[in-house]
Amino acid sequence: MAYPMQLGLQDATSPIMEELLHFHDHTLMIVFLISSLVLYIISLMLTTKLTHTSTMDAQEVETVWTILPAIILIMIALPSLRILYMMDEINNPSLTVKTMGHQWYWSYEYTDYEDLSFDSYMIPTSELKPGELRLLEVDNRVVLPMEMTIRMLISSEDVLHSWAVPSLGLKTDAIPGRLNQTTLMSTRPGLFYGQCSEICGSNHSFMPIVLELVPLKYFEKWSASML
Amino acid sequence: MSNSFSSTKAWMHGFLAKHLQFHIVGTFIISLGTATFCNFAVAEPGNKAYADFYRNYDSMKYFEVKSKAGIFQSAKGFEI
């Protein structure tokens, strides 16, 4: 989950999110490179009396400042495309879970074996127990097996929503009349929080997502108890 | 009234060119230095941290610790 004064991304809980973290480091390094270059040039221009007011042509410098940005863009695009294609690899999920966005809660359906479905509402601040997280806790969490590939099918019953879990690198729009798919694989057990990420009305900020990743035998016990 | 406009060409000393030559090198040193610093101060320690974390990682051990802390709805305590 996010913590106060956080500057960077949340710790990664899936291999894809680890790749995204490394990509973010790489791209931010390029951003700092360009920003420091521009800042230095601006400070140079502001601290000199020397001018050249009769430039007629500047073929060499124009070639450099065309080719160099193109190279930088390619250096950003190649790792980006690599991760994009990695997200779409065939990975044979062991489980499929459907989630529907509503105003203003999520509902989940586990229909691979039996028909299990439930709604997941935010716990109001006045009903939180000590230690629980404000605006993030829900009454029924999405319990899933860890270290297994899970297919998430996401849609909406009313307006646009978006199902997002930052530590897993997931954000998929929930669009009425459309079924979007994403793949989830957590390397660690624990609780992973997310929030609706597409404006959907007055309580858009109050429909969080909580994933509870546990070993498979606990997941099986939980799903049997929920039927 | 005499025209005081001079028709001789100004004699340039190449100060701007020398200034630019010196500072272009400085610009690249600073920007590449910033990028290198970002890489070795932020990116590499991050990569190392993840590699070290997962080298001897035992997910069941972490699950036991978190379960005993009582955070899971589906696994109260650590009973099998």
From TrEMBL, chain A:
Cofactor note: Binds a copper A center.
Residue ranges of domain Cytochrome oxidase subunit II transmembrane region profile in the record: 1-91
Coiled coil regions, renumbered to chain: none
InterPro entries registered for this protein in UniProt: CcO_II, CcO_II-like_C, CcO_II_C, Copper_CuA, Cupredoxin, Cyt_c_oxidase_su2, Cyt_c_oxidase_su2_TM_dom, Cyt_c_oxidase_su2_TM_sf
Topology of this chain in the membrane: Multi-pass membrane protein
UniProt catalytic activity: 4 Fe(II)-[cytochrome c] + O2 + 8 H(+)(in) = 4 Fe(III)-[cytochrome c] + 2 H2O + 4 H(+)(out)
Biological process annotations from GO: ATP synthesis coupled electron transport
Cell compartment(s), UniProt: Mitochondrion inner membrane
Gene3D superfamilies from the UniProt entry: 1.10.287.90, Cupredoxins - blue copper proteins
The Cytochrome oxidase subunit II copper A binding domain, residue ranges: 92-225
Tree of life domain: Eukaryota
TM region positions: 27-46, 66-85
Keyword check for Isomerase: no
Keywords tagged on the record: Copper, Electron transport, Magnesium, Membrane, Metal-binding, Mitochondrion, Mitochondrion inner membrane, Respiratory chain, Translocase, Transmembrane, Transmembrane helix, Transport
Cofactor: Cu cation
Zinc-finger recorded as keyword: no
Role of this protein: Component of the cytochrome c oxidase, the last enzyme in the mitochondrial electron transport chain which drives oxidative phosphorylation. The respiratory chain contains 3 multisubunit complexes succinate dehydrogenase (complex II, CII), ubiquinol-cytochrome c oxidoreductase (cytochrome b-c1 complex, complex III, CIII) and cytochrome c oxidase (complex IV, CIV), that cooperate to transfer electrons derived from NADH and succinate to molecular oxygen, creating an electrochemical gradient over the inner membrane that drives transmembrane transport and the ATP synthase.
Protein name: Cytochrome c oxidase subunit 2
Protein source organism: Capra hircus (Goat)
From TrEMBL, chain B:
GO cellular component: mitochondrial inner membrane
SUPFAM superfamilies: Mitochondrial cytochrome c oxidase subunit VIc
InterPro entries named among the record's database cross-references: Cytochrome_c_oxidase_VIc, Cytochrome_c_oxidase_VIc/VIIs, Cytochrome_c_oxidase_VIc_sf
Mode of membrane association: Single-pass membrane protein
Pathway participation: Energy metabolism; oxidative phosphorylation
Biological process (GO), any one: oxidative phosphorylation
Any Pfam family the entry gives: COX6C
Highest taxon listed in the record's lineage: Eukaryota
Keyword Protease included in the entry's annotation: no
Entry's localization field: Mitochondrion inner membrane
Keywords attached to this entry: Membrane, Mitochondrion, Mitochondrion inner membrane, Transmembrane, Transmembrane helix
Transmembrane segments annotated in the record for this chain: 20-42
Family as reported in the entry's similarity comment: Belongs to the cytochrome c oxidase subunit 6c family.
Name of the molecule in the record: Mitochondrial cytochrome c oxidase subunit VIc/VIIs domain-containing protein
Annotated organism of origin: Capra hircus
Organism ancestry: Eukaryota, Metazoa, Chordata, Craniata, Vertebrata
